[in-house]
Write a structure and sequence with these properties.
about 325 residues, alpha/beta, 8-stranded parallel β-barrel, two-stranded antiparallel sheet, 11 helices, DNA-binding
Length: about 325
DNA sequence: ACCTGTCAAGTCTGG
DNA sequence: CCAGACTTGACAGGT
């Protein structure tokens, strides 16, 4: 089994390279000239895309093929007071440049719209802004010219005191989404509400691929071990919605999220680095039936944590014939 | 240069 | 019914 590692949003190694610079609504409102303010927002977005490209080049230099882009590329993009503003035209070239770099290198990128995107909500205004946020993310992926294998990963959302009803509402709301949004979505188990088994059930019902977060599964489960759910999770990546459009017969490589608990007293928070042992235990369990998996490192130290993990794996590989280091950011488990 | 309160957004808990 | 927690990088305004 080939395992490729990636990281999220920003680098702690490359300095002055934030892809999520922003402007608050408070300071935007203070500007006399609204049009000049909008041009300023577009300039910030251009800088964010430029820094995203710098990060991708840094990734290429370290053979990192998997990366999650920040949702904050365009500041205030979906703010209710700026709905008449269309930032995409001014950013066409910047998005195209980032997208062509990704395509040329065959990188796998994604977005993770944050927890304000809640399709399980009973409130119409929250649903409307969630759909608007998803449309914004899809529009960015399309502006980059990325195939539908570039996904938006979200959680199911709140339970509102009745989890089955909330799951039902999620499914109803999902069914009403435009096709372009449906085929760009993955669902991830969360650490408090919808656990891995419950998320899997919704994924199977809707034909959506499931991203398993093994840290969330550890702190929110029904007594199952993570690899016990894996055969069914793996199958969700065969669904028609998950297929690669370049090669419709080829299933998309499944993705997992990896992080370690900050401390025994604070088990839900993410630690700076990743403990290799629990990760390896999981990977060895799934390796016999899984040709490849992409593992997104969600540690506070970001890419630094990825580099440290590779260092630890390199040492372990010397004594463990089941581990082979393939390059700067990928390994093979088993044969 | 460094520190602290705040930020557009949702949900849950406790009072 | 409402305030605060949750969580996070970065702004904004202060020292």
């Amino acid at each position: 089994m080939i395992v490729r590692f990636g990281y999220v949003a920003m680098s702690t190694v490359i300095k002055d390279c934030s892809p999520s610079k922003t402007m608050t609504m408070a300071s935007f409102s203070k500007l006399e000239d609204r049009e000049a303010g909008l041009r300023k927002l577009e300039a910030i977005a251009k800088m964010n895309l430029h820094n995203t490209l710098r990060l991708l080049k840094h990734n290429a230099g370290s053979e990192i093929q998997v990366y999650r882009m920040t949702s904050k590329l365009i500041p205030l993009a979906t703010h209710p007071e700026l709905q008449d503003w269309n930032p995409y035209a001014a950013l066409e070239d910047s998005f195209a440049e980032v997208g062509s770099y990704i395509r040329k290198r065959g990188m796998r990128v994604s977005f993770h719209p944050d927890h304000f995107t809640v399709l399980s909500t009973p409130r119409p205004e929250v649903l409307a802004s969630s759909v608007r946020d998803l449309e914004h993310h899809v529009r960015m992926l399309e502006a980059m010219g990325l195939p539908r294998t570039a996904k938006n990963n979200i959680h199911i959302g709140g339970a509102y005191g009745d989890k089955p009803a909330a799951a039902e509402r999620f499914c109803t709301h999902f069914a009403a989404l435009p096709e372009a949004l449906k085929m760009r979505m993955t669902l991830e188990n969360d650490d408090k509400t919808f656990n891995a088994a419950e998320t899997l059930e919704v994924c199977r019902r809707l034909g959506l691929p499931m991203v398993l977060d093994i840290h969330h599964q550890w702190v929110n489960n029904e007594g199952e071990l993570p690899w016990e759910l894996w055969p069914d999770i793996l199958r969700t990546w065969d669904s028609p919605l998950a297929q690669a459009d370049a090669d419709p017969g080829a299933p998309l490589v499944p993705k997992i999220h990896v992080s370690s608990p900050r401390s025994p007293s604070d088990p839900r928070s993410h630690a700076d680095l990743v403990e290799p042992a629990p990760l390896l235990a999981f990977l060895k369990r799934i390796a016999p039936d899984t040709p490849a998996v992409d593992a997104m490192i969600e540690a506070k130290a970001k890419d630094q944590a990825l580099f440290e993990l590779m260092g630890m794996l390199r040492e372990l590989a010397e004594k463990d014939p089941e581990i082979t280091i393939l390059d700067g950011a990928s390994i093979r488990i088993g044969t």
